[in-house]
């Protein structure tokens, strides 16, 4: 009995375009194929190797709307984080104290609302500049770093 190999296959019967191999090569090829390796013949020589890694698919290019939404989402997270640093659950929670009977909380809410408005005015103006090619698109981290800084009222 003989042993044969061609690209992608080994056999104990002759193969069109195949070459004769030894029993040891045949057994190694069968074992390799069981492990996910590919069998090929190059210049009459049996090769048993893992297939090449596929090229990674290119990352999808986000649409302009998806980019704008990412910047808006990051801005909203920043607004909430600033409120949380002051002990509020989020920006909505902080702003809800505007009419509080506790003067310190009311003052913090008023300062926060004014700051939040300044942040969003800046964000929309700068994102509009990016969309109209009036400025290069920053990274989200750079953009957040450009936003106005809050000035909390002094504690009573």
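Sequence proposed for the structure above (156 residues):
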């Amino acid at each position: 009995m003989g042993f044969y190999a061609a690209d992608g296959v080994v056999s104990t019967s002759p193969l069109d375009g195949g070459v004769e191999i030894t029993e040891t090569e045949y057994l190694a090829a069968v074992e390799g194929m069981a492990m996910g390796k590919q069998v090929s013949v190059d210049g009459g020589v049996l090769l048993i190797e893992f297939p090449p890694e596929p090229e990674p698919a290119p990352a999808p290019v986000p649409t302009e709307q998806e980019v704008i939404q990412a910047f808006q989402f990051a801005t909203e997270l920043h607004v909430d984080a600033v409120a949380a640093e002051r002990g509020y659950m989020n920006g909505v929670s902080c702003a809800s104290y505007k009419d509080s009977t506790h003067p310190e909380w009311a003052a913090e809410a008023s300062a926060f609302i004014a700051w939040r408005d300044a942040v969003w005015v800046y964000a929309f103006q700068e994102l509009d500049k990016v969309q109209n090619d009036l400025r290069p698109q920053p990274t989200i981290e750079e953009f957040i770093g450009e936003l106005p800084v809050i000035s909390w009222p002094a504690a009573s």
